[in-house]
Design goal:
Shape: flat
Number of strands: 0
Distance between the termini: 154 Å
Strand content: under 5%
Structural class: mainly alpha
Helix content: over 70%
Order of helices and strands: HHHHHHHHHH
């Protein structure tokens, strides 16, 4: 019975101990859960704060962008209003100026001046086209051999091929010269060593002539030859050849250049073309015109001045009445027997034309 009571007491003790252990485990679990909850709450708070900062930054950036766009739009609108106001002021001033004496004279002069300027521009264009036709016909009538000689004449004067050949030959000649000098210098250094040892070139030849010799050959003796004329002459041949070619090409180039300069064929043919047509059709530049169709040289800018004045619309300083150009068509040159047919036809046409500019 005592044993039974002891066993019962031990069982109760074990039960109490297990209950305490379970309670402690439950408390630790609750504490851990509470710590986890606090950490989650802290993380959630940090994430919320970060998201808040990002939202504020995005809001400020969007606000700054909208402010910049609004400022740009405002500046653009102000510039447009200022431009419109300036244009309106210009129109008002131009309208008021047209009522003045100078403005009335300008408006009466404006339309005829524009017509005359356009007429002169068209005539200048027609004049250039006439010269282009005359040049084309003259070039077509020039013999092909004459054209070929004219085209080849600059190359004959330059002789670029011989110049390049002389430079290439000179380069190779200098290259072989440097190699020869280096070889002579090296041979001198090599020859100085045997001479100090007492074994001379003559002694080497004596040993070479000995029938019992099997150690020394001819190359060994040539290595200490004090006067190696044979190898040097062999190496000097390419140098002399290329330097001679360079000199020959230079002399030949000078000779051909002089022959081209002294050849009167091309200059005589050019003079014959000038005598026949009044110009050299093979030597003219693009847009060439032998002379202007009008008498007075100052009329070369008449069309441009007329168009510039006639297009005045109030922007800038208004032209004075004294600045208005007289609306007269420049007089054309009469035809001449030395002029090309195309040019004489245009001159006849220009003299017969009576443009209405009023």
């Amino acid at each position: 019975m005592v044993n039974n009571m002891r066993d019962a007491r031990n069982s109760l003790h074990n039960i109490e101990r297990d209950a305490k252990s379970a309670a402690n485990s439950a408390g630790q679990s609750a504490h851990s859960n509470a710590a986890t909850a606090r950490a989650a709450q802290s993380a959630a708070s940090g994430a919320w704060v970060g998201a808040g900062f990002q939202a504020v930054s995005a809001f400020q950036s969007a606000r700054a962008a909208r402010a910049a766009e609004e400022t740009l739009a405002l500046n653009h609108a102000m510039a447009e209003r200022q431009y419109a106001a300036a244009e309106q002021t210009t129109r008002y001033q131009f309208a008021a100026w047209r009522q003045s004496a100078e403005g009335t004279a300008f408006m009466a002069w404006r339309v005829p001046a524009f017509r005359l300027g356009q007429f002169l521009l068209n005539r200048d264009s027609e004049w250039m086209q006439g010269w282009a036709r005359a040049i084309g016909r003259a070039q077509a009538e020039t013999p092909n051999d004459e054209k070929r000689r004219f085209m080849q004449h600059p190359a004959r004067l330059k002789q670029t091929g011989l110049k390049v050949a002389s430079l290439v030959s000179l380069t190779f000649g200098v290259f072989f010269l440097l190699g020869l000098l280096f070889q002579v210098f090296s041979a001198t250094l090599v020859q100085s060593a045997p001479s100090r040892s007492g074994f001379t070139y003559e002694q080497c030849l004596d040993v070479l002539a000995d029938p019992t010799n099997f150690l020394i050959d001819e190359a060994n003796c040539e290595a200490i030859n004090p006067n190696p004329a044979g190898p040097i002459v062999v190496q000097a041949v390419p140098m002399v050849l290329f330097l001679g070619l360079a000199v020959m090409f230079v002399v030949l180039r000078r000779f051909k250049q002089r022959a081209a300069r002294m050849d009167p064929t091309v200059p005589n043919e050019a003079q014959a073309r000038i005598t026949r047509w009044g110009f050299d059709p093979l030597a003219v530049a693009p847009g060439y015109a032998g002379f202007e169709w009008y008498h007075v040289p100052s009329n070369s800018t008449l069309a441009d001045r007329l168009m510039k004045l006639a297009l005045f619309d109030g922007h800038g300083h208004p032209p004075a009445q004294s600045a208005l150009v007289t609306l007269d068509v420049p007089g054309a040159w009469p035809p001449h027997e030395n002029h090309p047919v195309e040019i004489n036809e245009l001159l006849v046409k220009f003299q017969q034309e009576r443009p209405v500019v009023g």
